[in-house]
Design a protein that fits this description.
There is one protein chain. By secondary structure, the protein is α+β, with helices and mostly antiparallel strands. The protein is built from 4 helices and 6 strands. Strands 1, 2, 3, 4, 5 and 6 form a 6-stranded antiparallel β-sheet that branches.
């Protein structure tokens, strides 16, 4: 599963900053997106916070073996709107609408031949 996630990220040209198989953790680097792309990643009630700014996202995958036959994969996204905010993120973090996570998990399931 771990190598499948790495392959998926490579095929989508999303660079990896951390891949720790022992901990079951994969993180991407910060991936820049245009304002139009950014608007597709956040909940509609947060669009006023996006304005005309571009942004970026970081994906994390946590892979856990549940038993001999089951593995759980959790995908989470940090979405950041660029801006002059006093934050170590260099912008404002906004809640993801889940579309990026779903797209990755669906693509992973298809890649592995699983009915997702």
């Amino acid at each position: 599963m771990f190598s499948a996630i790495l392959s998926l990220l490579k095929s989508r040209e999303e660079p990896v900053s951390l891949a720790d198989q022992t901990r079951g953790l994969i993180n991407t680097t910060s991936i820049n997106v245009t304002n139009v792309q950014l608007r597709t990643l956040v909940s509609t009630n947060l669009l006023t916070h996006v304005g005309r700014q571009p942004g970026r996202y970081l994906l994390s995958f946590n892979v856990k073996r549940l038993d001999d036959r089951s593995i759980e994969v959790i995908a989470t996204t940090l979405v950041v709107v660029d801006g002059p905010v006093a934050s170590i993120l260099g912008g404002q973090a906004l809640a993801s609408n889940g579309s990026l996570e779903r797209a990755h998990l669906t693509a992973l399931a298809q890649m592995l031949g699983l009915g997702h």
